[in-house]
Design goal:
about 750 residues, six-stranded antiparallel beta sheet, four-stranded antiparallel beta sheet, alpha+beta, 21 strands
């Protein structure tokens, strides 16, 4: 049993480290930690009773203990230094503590295996599962976590059997230990197989009960109390990632060389109703997130200007949904206060994921950006957009793209290239003119020029020193990603006095064939250009080559099919588990109890104390469920008990009669336990009786010897012996009850 407990502990430790490494993700921790545990498990098989560190160092247990203490000290010092560097970053604190736990697991596996050391490793393995839950909530992590918990549960049960066995042997004399060891070695093979099967069966039943109980508690307890746990999970590319395709609220050009890595992580699902779309036109939509109308040639960045105002309500001008593009969006992470939608948004409503408080959605009057505050990490919202919107005229002082602000590109190589393109197209434009009838045609000419002369690539290249990255892309390299195409078009438009701005967001092109909704990934982050082709009328121009962009964002083949299936499963996980909120909770209550009953419960709860009343209601319901499961344990565990009885007494008819006679022994154990004299697992009934006092000792010893006759003597008791057993048991029960009453 010792070898089984050690092997089960190694499996649990390996899965614990692997689970957290996947959740972080931390490849180095997974590879180094996992390989170390596998190596230690292999060494332990040949180490016998010694610890792996004794084998590795070839030294005594005393010196090995000092080496382990040194390793523990180094691990703690590393943790303190890392925590000092992290300071108030909560996510870093969780990561550092979890890595410390992983190091402690490996260090503990170096020492000699005792019940105490195995218990510590199992506890640390469970702690890693908690750290993984706080770090990641993806479907893959959920599946791995369930597997880890089942393996951990099996390891704990195996450990309990081994610990009881070790404690029993510890209380035996030397000669008895030799007898016990020889008896264990001579144990029939079928006993070992049955024990293994029983442990697996108990793990399955226990795991099922835990999952059912956890599901009940998860669905019954109130949502949104104690903060937003999902806020730990954010869109990883939200403005901080470097060298990774993802949304950022600024565009920085010429930062580094190398190939941009692409993440297929889903950031949102978008359902779009567009009744005005032309039949046969390929459906793809640009979801605006940030409008960048100011270019800094020194910093080489596009940023948003400070001259903007917001409006809580926008006049819908009597438009119906047939005239608008309706977008229902469900996010899978936080992008701060930004909401994404098609131009030009007229209204926005957050339908789920708002923290308590007043509505805070707003739409910028100048740029039509959408923002909201007090949101959870996962939000559902609805936007109605009017693509034909014409903004009212504004004064020059309110226009961040007025001619006097466009001088950045009025002269130089970019301006010369822009005028050359217009000359080739037979067009011209006065820089000082606010608007001309040819503005749309001019913008289209710049877009077509970029389509013809430049190619799309995710391989970055630093421009030469003192060279503007837009100029380098447009005139020399002629290769780049979407940010360069959008920047080049905006700069060429501004070079001839045409108002233009860069927009960052996502392109929605990939559909979920089952739901029809668009799947938007981090790799779908995109940048394009908006040009004011008439007073207050902004048109969208995507200068990135459409064929190359479609190949990048709309993959095909068997890999794309597998990814779509994975996304569908991930969507179910996110919407029904991670995104489970009070609205979904209310739907379940209505479906279970009926609409009227659920409304009455909700009204009573609000009168009794608001949402807080659901805390005790949920706790009471969870406790009632647990009590019901506990009451059903006899039914659920009956097959295992029957198999255990057969392994003790046999499976023939006479053995069944002996097992029936031995029922008095189970009653004896229950009586002693209620009186405070519970028999330890390691002690036999006769040995336990000798530790008691008075008549109780004699009665328990006599009953124990009768049980020995049934079990080890393999004979049926005579009628008078069985009567004597019940007489002694009744007298013992009364005596202990009276003694307890006094």
């Amino acid at each position: 049993m010792r070898e089984r407990a050690i092997a089960a502990t190694h499996r649990s430790a390996f899965l614990g480290v692997l689970t957290y490494a996947v959740a972080e993700p931390n490849t180095a921790l997974g590879v180094i930690g996992g390989a170390s545990i596998v190596a230690l498990a292999a060494i332990q098989r040949f180490a016998g009773t010694a610890g792996p560190i004794e084998v590795l160092l070839g030294t005594s247990e005393r010196i090995a203990r000092r080496a382990i203490n040194l390793l523990l000290l180094l691990a703690v010092l590393w943790t303190l230094i890392s925590l000092g560097a992290a300071r108030q970053d909560t996510t870093q604190v969780v990561s550092i503590i979890s890595v410390l736990v992983a190091m402690l697991v490996v260090i503990r596996l170096l020492e000699r295996k005792t019940p105490r050391s195995l218990a510590q490793v199992l506890s640390l393995s469970g702690t890693l599962a908690i750290g993984a839950c706080l770090t990641n909530v993806t479907l893959a992590l959920g599946a791995l976590l369930i597997t880890h918990l089942l393996v951990l549960l099996h390891a704990v049960m195996t450990y309990q059997v081994y610990a009881a066995e070790a404690q029993a042997v510890e209380h035996l004399d030397e000669s008895d230990r030799e007898v016990a060891a020889s008896a264990g070695d001579a144990a029939p093979a079928h006993r070992s197989v049955r024990l293994r099967h029983d442990l697996v069966g108990m793990t399955a039943v226990g795991g099922a009960l835990i999952i059912v109980g956890a599901s009940f508690v998860f669905t019954s307890l109130p949502r949104g109390i104690g903060g937003d746990v999902s806020a730990w999970q954010t869109i990883q590319s939200g403005g901080t990632g470097r060298g990774v395709v993802g949304f950022r609220d600024t565009v920085a050009l010429g930062e580094r060389s190398g190939i941009l890595s692409e993440s297929t992580a889903v950031v949102m699902e978008v359902e779009i109703v567009d009744r005005g779309r032309e039949p046969g036109r390929t459906a793809s939509y640009l979801l605006r997130g940030a409008v960048l109308d100011r270019y800094d040639p020194e910093q080489r960045t596009w940023t948003a200007s400070d001259q903007r105002s917001s409006s809580r309500l926008t006049e819908m001008r009597g438009l119906s949904d047939d005239d608008l593009i309706v977008q229902r969006i469900a996010t899978r992470g936080s992008a701060g206060d930004r909401l994404f939608g098609v131009y030009a948004p007229m209204s926005v409503e957050v339908t789920a994921g708002r923290r308590r408080g007043r509505p805070t959605e707003s739409i910028s009057v100048l740029t039509r950006e959408i923002t909201a505050s007090d949101l959870n990490a996962r939000v559902r919202y609805e936007i109605r957009s009017d693509p034909t919107l014409v903004l009212p005229p504004r004064a020059d002082g309110d226009d961040v793209s007025a001619p006097q602000t466009l001088r950045t590109f009025a002269e130089g190589a970019i301006a010369d290239e822009a005028r050359r393109v217009l000359d080739d197209a037979g067009l011209s434009r006065d820089f000082e003119a606010r608007h001309t009838p040819d503005d749309f045609t001019i913008a289209r000419a710049f877009q077509n020029h970029l389509w013809r002369t430049c190619s799309y690539t995710i391989e970055q290249e630093m421009p030469p020193p003192d060279t503007d990255p837009i100029e380098y892309f447009l005139l020399e390299r002629r290769e780049g990603h979407c940010e360069y195409f959008a920047s080049a078009m905006a700069s060429m438009c501004r070079a001839v006095g045409l108002n233009a701005r860069v927009v960052a967001g996502y392109v929605a092109t990939e559909r979920n064939p089952a739901s029809g909704a668009f799947i938007v990934r981090e790799s779908h982050a995109h940048a394009w250009t908006e040009v004011e082709v008439a007073p207050g009328q902004w048109s969208t121009f995507d200068a990135s080559p459409p064929s190359e962009l479609e190949m990048l964002h709309r993959p095909s083949g068997w890999r794309a099919s597998v990814r779509r299936w994975r996304d569908q499963i991930e969507s179910i996980w996110v919407n029904n588990v991670i995104g489970f909120d009070s609205d979904r909770q209310a739907q379940i209550v209505s479906a279970t109890l009926g609409t009227r009953t659920s409304e009455r419960i909700e009204n009573w709860a609000m009168r009794a104390g608001g949402e807080a009343i659901w805390i005790p209601v949920g706790i009471v319901g969870a406790l009632m469920f647990m009590v019901g499961v506990w009451r059903m344990r006899a039914v659920l565990l009956a097959p295992m008990r029957r198999r255990r009885q057969e392994s003790v007494f046999g499976d023939d008819e006479e053995s069944a009669r002996r097992a029936h006679q031995a029922a008095f022994y189970r009653r004896l154990l229950d009586t002693l336990a209620r009186a405070g004299h519970a028999k330890p697992d390691w002690a036999g009934p006769v040995a336990h009786a000798r530790g008691l006092e008075g008549p109780t000792s004699a009665s328990v010893e006599h009953l124990g010897r009768l049980y020995y006759e049934i079990r080890f003597g393999r004979r049926l008791l005579e009628a008078d012996e069985l009567d004597r057993a019940h007489e002694l048991l009744d007298g013992l029960t009364e005596s202990l009850r009276a003694s307890h009453a006094r």
